[in-house]
Design brief:
Layout: H1 6-9, H2 19-31, E1 33-35, E2 52-54, H3 63-77, E3 83-88, H4 92-106, E4 110-115, E5 128-129, E6 137-144, H5 148-159, E7 164-172, H6 176-182, E8 190-195, E9 213-223, E10 239-241, E11 244-248, E12 253-258, E13 264-269, E14 283-285, E15 288-292, E16 298-302, E17 308-312, E18 323-325, E19 330-336, E20 344-350, E21 356-362, E22 370-373, E23 378-383, E24 387-392, E25 398-403, E26 413-415, E27 420-424, E28 429-434, E29 440-445, E30 455-457, E31 460-464, E32 469-474, E33 480-485, E34 495-497, E35 501-505, E36 510-515, E37 521-526, E38 536-538, E39 543-547, E40 552-561
Parallel strand pairs: 3-4, 3-6, 6-7, 7-8
Antiparallel strand pairs: 1-2, 4-5, 9-40, 10-11, 11-12, 12-13, 14-15, 15-16, 16-17, 18-19, 19-20, 20-21, 22-23, 23-24, 24-25, 26-27, 27-28, 28-29, 30-31, 31-32, 32-33, 34-35, 35-36, 36-37, 38-39, 39-40
Length: 568
């Protein structure tokens, strides 16, 4: 980057109608446009060479460029003051500051907000720096490409009841993915100073759009009190029961909200709970809710009122999610004990009385949850003992043990039709084993811990990893058919959505939807916070509820449309 690129990068045509715009365009061309033909090495996200790169950070380290940008901003928006400008770190920070300083010079009223890419996990845990007010918000950024950053800012502001009036960027790439995002309901207009074509640049030819695209419209949101931002891990996922959504929170409270409106219906607080509160997901059978907490109690609540039916003070902590097998009238859960030996177990309890029916000891604390296999009437649990174990459902006798290099901290999934069991491990592996014998059929290695339950759709297994990729694997061969980069750890369980789609979220707040047959991405949205649990699909796919690790629920209307989005 530098003036040696000036002759190559500057425009052939100039704009004499606005000297400030012309001068800023020259500075962007001189300092931001990098071309491989000039001897600059430009590497793409997957290591492939790129022909060019636009990087505006060098341009906006120039005081002149910042002053010109701020002048051009106020030429457009002076009549709309007072207003607020907001942008995501890092690229937008100098732009927001420049606009605020120019406002001071010109006598305009302007408030500034900075959005963090990730919420701080300590201190005040803020996402927004600055003091919001009720004035219209203009979101600022250097570039508009896919729309991911702008979407994240809009989601964070929406959470704080701050609707975005407009987006304003320096250069609009007008990429097909970005244009698809702009076609979503509720996305405000985007204004720009320049386009790529004004710098004699163009994007690579776009891939064909899938035949069906998903659109998402915000419906309601619900936030539990006192979330703990320190634990960016799978927490208590929302479950649906007769018009209600039920889940637990970091403050050791079970919440029930109306699935249509998001209004609270009831809550139940677990007394004496540890700082982790409730991490396990509730199991609901008939009108009973089963859930454990870090106070060591297993609870049965009335699903309609939230009143306690029974509780069993069975251990010191419970982080496992209960599993109900109605045929036996039993609920199964992992337990944790504060003792040096045999500090974990898997146990079965009577669903009507809470009486413990059987318990099988483990060497260390038990975080994992279970799945039921009807083929041999067993429950299969991943364990912190570096194993997955199959227990006889009625007696707890061990059928088989699959030894692993590290723990399996999340529940397996069982395909009873094909006699298969799939699970993930902290050794970075995605496994498929025989559900009757535990014999390994294949293992796919990922680049980090895996903390999720796989999903099987047809002949494909879907699972995420802490390496920030989402995998689609051929069930028969173990061959990876799709490795999709999220940019955040994929801990959320993938979920099926009609007609044959898969939804999954990541810790950077991104949700992506895929066609399970073609593996093409057909939709995406951005939640305000990280996602570490599975998305809840309601009303045959007409709505989805996205949970965040900050104990919030975001409901969106989901609509599938034909290929009508703008294309480049």
């Amino acid at each position: 980057m530098g003036s040696y690129q000036c002759n190559m990068n500057r425009l052939v045509q100039s704009d004499t109608t606005n000297p400030a715009l012309e001068r800023l365009r020259d500075l962007v061309a001189d300092y931001a446009v990098n071309r491989a033909s000039s001897g600059v090495r430009i590497q793409g996200p997957n290591g492939e060479p790129n022909d060019w790169l636009m990087d505006l950070r060098a341009t906006f380290m120039l005081p002149e460029a910042l002053d010109l940008f701020a002048e051009l901003f106020w030429q457009r928006y002076a009549a709309k003051a007072p207003l607020q400008v907001a942008g995501m770190e890092v690229a937008a920070i100098p732009l927001v500051v420049a606009i605020m300083l120019k406002a001071k010079q010109l006598g305009h009223e302007c408030n500034g907000l900075m959005i963090r890419k990730e919420r701080k996990t300590q201190g005040l845990g803020r996402q927004i720096e600055g003091t919001p007010n009720s004035n219209p918000v203009i979101v600022i950024d250097d570039l508009a490409n896919s729309g991911i950053s702008l979407s994240k800012v809009q989601a964070v502001l929406w959470k704080e009841n701050l609707p975005v009036h407009e987006f304003f960027v320096v250069v609009d790439f007008q990429s097909p993915k970005g244009l698809r995002w702009r076609a979503q309901p509720g996305v405000p207009p985007l204004q720009s100073l320049f386009s790529l074509q004004q710098f004699q640049l163009s994007l690579a030819p776009a891939k064909p759009l899938p035949g069906m695209l998903a659109q998402y419209t915000p419906v309601w949101r619900y936030a539990a009190r006192l979330p703990n931002p320190h634990y960016v891990v799978p927490k208590s996922a929302p479950v649906y029961h007769q018009g209600k959504i039920i889940y637990g929170s970091d403050s050791a409270t079970v919440h029930a909200v109306d699935a249509a409106t998001g209004m609270p219906l009831w809550n139940f607080h677990l007394e004496g709970a540890h700082a982790k509160g409730i991490l396990g997901t509730a199991a609901v059978h008939e009108d009973k809710v089963f859930i454990g907490g870090y106070n060591g109690n297993l609870y049965c609540l009335n699903a309609n009122t939230g009143k306690q039916i029974w509780f069993n003070p069975c251990c010191d902590w419970i982080g496992s999610s209960p599993l109900v097998v109605p045929e036996h009238g039993l609920v199964y859960v992992g337990l944790e004990y504060a003792k040096p030996r045999n500090s974990g177990s898997v146990a079965a309890f009577d669903i009507n009385t809470g009486e413990k029916r059987w318990e099988r000891w483990l060497q260390v604390v038990q975080h994992g949850s279970g799945a039921y296999c009807s083929l041999n009437d067993s429950v299969i649990f991943g364990t912190n003992d570096h194993s997955v174990i199959s227990y006889a459902a009625t007696t707890g006798e061990i059928n088989w043990i699959c030894d692993l290099p590290r723990s399996a901290k999340y529940a397996p999934v069982v395909d009873n039709t094909r006699g298969l069991c799939a699970f993930t491990s902290w050794d970075g592996g995605i496994y498929l084993v025989d559900a009757l014998t535990g014999a390994t059929k294949w293992r796919v290695a990922t680049g980090n811990i895996c903390y999720t339950t796989p999903l099987i759709v047809g002949d494909t297994l879907f699972a995420g990893s802490g390496d920030k990729f989402f995998y689609a694997i051929d069930l028969e061969t173990g061959k990876v058919k799709l490795k999709y980069e999220f940019g955040g750890r994929v801990y959320g369980n993938p979920r099926f959505a009609p007609p044959h789609h898969v939804l999954v979220g990541a810790t950077n707040g991104r949700v992506a939807e895929f066609d399970a047959h073609t593996l093409q991405q057909v939709g995406w949205l951005h939640a305000p916070d990280g996602i570490t649990n599975g998305i809840l699909v309601l009303d045959d796919g007409a709505k989805i509820v996205v949970p965040t690790y900050m104990n919030e629920l975001y409901c969106y209307a989901r609509e599938l449309k034909g290929r009508t989005a703008p294309q480049a």
